[in-house]
Design goal:
By secondary structure, the chain is α+β, with helices and mostly antiparallel strands. It is 29% helix and 35% strand. A hairpin with a 4-residue loop joins β6 and β7.
Length: 163
């Protein structure tokens, strides 16, 4: 079985992240992506902004020591959110589920929120396996699809005893 870890994202990961986040099939699944995923200067600016933001924790997901994707925690309107993006070569083996489990163990704040395109059934399964429940749906423009799409908001709520 693969050994999955989260480690701080470093400069050597940036090229792999760019390539991963411009994969056309992955962009369609994620849907709510950068307007132009092939625009390297915009990606570099986005990456620099997020890597230096005080409320962002950005990790590389590794499988047996090799790069398998990213996972992050960030704050939007005072609420903590999680996100993850797994490279195509690592799809279908439980890596996203394991990475999210590690990420939510790292972050004590609850509730934690996550957003997912309604057609991304694999990502919905990852969230639900980790205890997230759907709380709402909205429709808005999805750059990765070039059209309107439905997005679901999921929450990981605190346990009844507060933990």
């Amino acid at each position: 079985m693969a050994h999955i870890e989260l480690r701080p994202l470093d400069d050597d990961d940036v090229d792999a992240v760019f390539e991963m986040m411009r994969d056309p099939g992955a962009v369609r699944l994620a849907a709510f992506t950068a307007q132009h995923p092939d625009d390297r200067p915009s990606f570099d600016e986005w990456m620099s902004r997020h890597r230096t933001a005080p409320d962002v924790e950005f990790f590389a997901v590794t499988e047996n020591g090799g790069f398998a994707g990213t996972a992050a925690l960030f704050t939007v309107d005072g609420e903590r959110e999680v996100t993850y993006w797994i490279a195509r070569h690592a799809w279908g083996r439980g890596i996203a589920t394991a990475a999210l489990r590690l990420l939510i163990a790292f972050e004590a704040e609850r509730p934690l929120f996550a957003r997912v395109a309604s057609h991304n059934l694999a990502s919905i399964a990852v969230l639900e396996k980790n205890g997230f429940t759907e709380v709402s749906r909205t429709t808005s423009f999805a750059p990765g699809l070039g059209r309107e799409a439905e997005e679901r908001l999921y929450a990981l709520l605190p346990a009844i005893d507060g933990y």
